[in-house]
Amino acid sequence: MDIPAAPAFEDLVDPAEVAALEARFGPAGRRSVAVDMVRPTFDEWWEAVVARPNRRAEVVLVVQRPNRHVLVHTKVQYPPATYRLPTGGIRPGEAAVDALHREAAEETGLPVADARFLGLIAYTFRCRDDERRMPFASFVFHVRVDYAEPMVNDPDEDIMDFLFVRPERLPDIARTLRQLAPDWADWGRFRAHGHDLAADALRMPVGRRAGG
User: Fold this and answer.
1) What residues make up the domain containing 111?
2) In a domain, 7, yes or no
3) How many domains does the chain have?
4) What are the backbone angles phi and psi of residue 133, rounded to the nearest 5°?
């Protein structure tokens, strides 16, 4: 059986889509990072993006209340006391903004209002056990909400708990993700990057969010 070739980054993320987001929301942070993974973890992403594609990228949701606190969540299968920003896949052919609204509804039950694009993380996933490489991307969005309580509309998400934390806690969460036990280490290092970008963006005035 022929092994499918990995797509180019531009096959997953149209530069015109990113340009349109920046024209609408203003300059956003850009980061390029490599993430090494053991074969089982890499194979899960290869299956989802390349072999039987059900996503082309993901949205990272930075959901913030008027008191500045940011929503994080944990799932049944996560290591104890492991919280992170909500994320959700962008389906092939789906616009990132449409995925933002859909995933916010599914994972938090909160309406998207006053959204803005914080940045794009371009990943190269590298398998430690063979020569395979593949691209992926996180579109990081900021969403303002009121004090309504989040709720899960998709039980398949297995979300166990929500917390609202001060934005200054995001670097601590990133460090925790980078220090997870070996079974979760690759996942944690990957997930930490969205928290880095979000923490930097929330520290910076809106008019100065270029670069990254």
Assistant:
1) 14-201
2) no
3) 1
4) -135, 150
pTM for this predicted structure: 0.93
Strands 113-127 and 133-144: antiparallel
User: How crowded is the C-beta side of 183, counted as CA atoms within 13 Å?
Assistant: 3
Integer distance in angstroms from the first to the last C-alpha of the chain?
42
Confidence at residue 205, expressed as pLDDT on a 0 to 100 scale: 53
List the CATH number of the domain containing 171.
3.90.79.10
CA separation for the pair 128, 171 (Å, rounded): 27
- Tell me whether residue 44 is in a domain: yes
Residue 75: both structure tokens together? 């799932």
CA–CA dist 125, 190 (Å, integer) = 9
- In the block, residue with structure tokens 């959204």: 115
196 located within any domain: yes
pLDDT at 206 over 60: no
Is 210 inside a domain boundary? Answer: no
CB 59 within 8 A of CB 144: no
The SS3 assignment for 71 reads strand
Single-letter amino acid, residue 163: L
